[in-house]
Design goal:
Blueprint: H1 3-6, E1 7-8, E2 11-12, E3 17-19, H2 22-31, E4 39-41, H3 45-53, H4 57-63, E5 71-77, H5 90-100, E6 106-112, H6 114-120, H7 122-128, H8 130-134, E7 138-139, H9 146-152, E8 155-158, H10 162-169, E9 174-176, H11 189-196, H12 206-215, H13 223-227, H14 236-248, E10 277-284, E11 292-299, E12 320-326, E13 340-342, H15 351-361, E14 367-371, E15 376-380, E16 386-391, H16 404-416, H17 423-426, E17 429-434, E18 437-446
Parallel strand pairs: 3-4, 5-6, 5-8, 6-7, 8-9, 11-17, 12-13, 13-14
Antiparallel strand pairs: 1-2, 10-11, 10-12, 14-15, 15-16, 16-18, 17-18
Helix pairs in contact: 3-9, 4-9, 6-7
Amino acid sequence: MAPEWLLHQGEPLASATVLSHPEQLERLRLSCPEAADTAVLAGDPCFDRLLDLRRRRPALRRAFGAGDGRRLVVLNSTWGRASLAGSAGFAGLLRELTETLPLDEYRLCAVLHPNIWYGHGPGQVRSWLRRAEASGVLLVDPLEHWRQAVAAADCVIGDHGSVTYYAAALHLPVLLGTFPHDALDPASPVAALGRAAPRLCPGVPLREQIDAVIGGHMPGRYDRFAAQASSDPGASATLLRKLFHSLLGLPVPAGAAPTPPLPVPENLAAQRPSVPVRVLTTVRHSPGEPPEIAVARFADPSVEPDDLPGAGADCDNEPDAHTVACDDTTDSGRLPLADVVTCRARPGEPPGPRAAELLARYPYAALAAVPDGPGRCLVQGREGAGLLLSSLPRPDGFPDPCDPSVHASAAYAWYASGRPLAALADTGTITVTTGTIRHRVAVVKESW
């Protein structure tokens, strides 16, 4: 701690210098002994709220669209030129994340420091990240829901900022995208995390690195950082209230200080990509059994994807590739080439005529898909009746968060394998797999 921040004419500026852990007191005594007598250990109220959020982790994961078992990856950056967002490789990192992580197996969130948002302006930041957001990356509000995102995460990719440290202190896997060792006090816990946590390795596929750091994470790996996050976990609000009342000369109220729990966010799981999506599929169908269709979707990849887990000799077809595009995509030049055209749901608009309109407008599309409510979409081909495909509840009883566009791609896979589209309704239900995640989908013939 620089003395010029704490002293005026050799005297402490503050009546109380609040510290979160005793190790900070030792460093304060070394760097500015004149201020050491004003030090007060009061824990970390932000860390306390993160600890409280852990008990609602299942609800938080559902809120962020990861309740079905997909991996929630949080990309975090502090501010400044030495930060992850300030690095030359940040744009490439975002592009590789969105292009190579299957949309329905990973959920991506970006948590950027408020100084990034308000130093450059929200409009400029959203302009820089427009393609990432269109590819499915959730830009988390810098003041509201970042703690909920971290508490729900499977992995945090970050730098030397406090959010990455909090993630490690919550015993989460972390990957460092950049880390300026020379800009930090080597004795600080953050610097120690920089020496202990794995770094992103250029040239190694990001998906491989993310899966490895999650799968290889050992309980207790970051115990020392959890221990140094707070002098008194869970009690910071009470300690701070005691300090503030003493400074004001007021009696301290009895009992613990009330701390309202942070809310579970709403309407975050419904975000869908607006860029064209490249899809790989295979079909398995044994007589008397519901069809099983594997789907892997990639947001506008620059290289043709070839990874479809589960594809094997028992599939009815080799992995098939097709393109899905929404009619409001900014890349409208790709719409005439799409195999499946979709649209955004509009309240009160009938799906059948809308599907017919899409097929008339895009004559080279084989199917049109129109959402008809949460987890539902109508799929219409160029001949015969349409199909209504609806997500069935998950085994745990919660709604399946699967994007209905996945159902449309499953229907296209069935059709592209040489089977009549209408025959899919005869099966009653199908199983759609996205990686290791299984979705049960009801299929009903629809006419209007």
